[in-house]
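User: Can you predict the 3D structure for this chain?
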Amino acid sequence: MGVSLKDVAQRAGVSIKTVSNVVNNYQHVTPKMRAKVQQAIDELGYRPNLTARHLRKGRTGIIALAVPEFGNPYFAELAGAVVDAAARHDYTVLVDHTGGLREKELLVSQGFRSHVIDGLILSPIHLETEDLMARTETAPLVLLGEREYEAPYDHIAIDNVAAARDAVRHLIGLGHRRIAFLGSRTGRERQPAHLRLRGWREELAAAGIEADESLVVVTDGYGREDGAVAMAALLDRGERPDAVFAYNDLIAIGAMRTLSERGLRIPDDVAVVGFDNIEESLYGATTLTTIAPDKEAIARLAVDSLVERLSGSPVPEPRRPRPGYRLIVRESTVMRPPAEQPGP
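Assistant: Here is the predicted structure, written as structure tokens:
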């Protein structure tokens, strides 16, 4: 038989109610009493019944995370960070994917799993502000992703324009002037691709460089093959850039493959910058310079926002925090130094 609250109370020499107050993290317990009970919990190896605790509060103890796809490593890494952040609040995460389909995004946002979840973290691609405004599901919703919305929900996203400008500024600082952008999309201006393209244009203008729109390549998707095809198309029409800023790391990795196949050296002939800092960016023949969003901060802010709204305590108007990011400089933009030769 497992360890009970009664066992912990007897070991600590306190009431069962006091143990319950500590387990439920009620703030009125004194630090001395909390430490005493925690010691008994540790000694006995007591594990609270989280399911029962959530049910007493009318909760399932489960939150959902819906992302466009699992094939993109960025979303897989982000999902792992969300699971870790939720565990700190004793929540389990149900992870789903929408396939990047508008119909599935609508289904998820309208609460088709509401009978088993307490709240939803959603990274949409195709939803419009009007879709979110028409939402009737009462479970709390937190949005992820760089697409901009004017809807009454917490939205966690980095500053895409600023991040793109930092990437392009890095390339300009290395002396590059013909900087291509791979991964543009046709459509609405609030999409992440448009925001990153805007950053590309703004930073070129700030440096006094005219943006050459012939170096902007639209892609059908955001995968490795899309990057390889886009780079080949650019080279085939005689538009050889001296640097590439890609919408994401996968496009950058595909572009680097094409450059290598065409006999172009990276970064000597063409420098490349990606976006997302997926693990794969570290392990190519040439490591990839990339913009690294703080995935842990994104996950933490999303989960904290959702849990706060689930708590029933008064919360402010919808928030739009900007998690940090950083530019990680690697071999695709800066040549590695020659290996030291052993002395005589």
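Residues 338-344 have pLDDT under 50 and may be disordered. DSSP finds twelve helices and eleven strands in the chain.
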